[in-house]
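Handoff note, outgoing to incoming analyst
You'll be picking up this chain. Sequence as last confirmed:
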Amino acid sequence: MPKGKAAGMRCIQLTPENRCALFGDPRRPAVCMSLKPSPEMCGGHRDEALLWLATMEILTAAHP
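Most recent structure output, in case you need it:
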């Protein structure tokens, strides 16, 4: 995704298992490599992490 990913759009590099297909690949975007997960981001379990991500997508979406 040369111009980035719009909020609400699924990353084209995610596998059906929601894993990064470019993990460890030099083509992986710098923004992905620089992401440092935090306890707030990860939560206590997968559902909390997905809720955090969904919230960030909403908060960072472009509003017409």
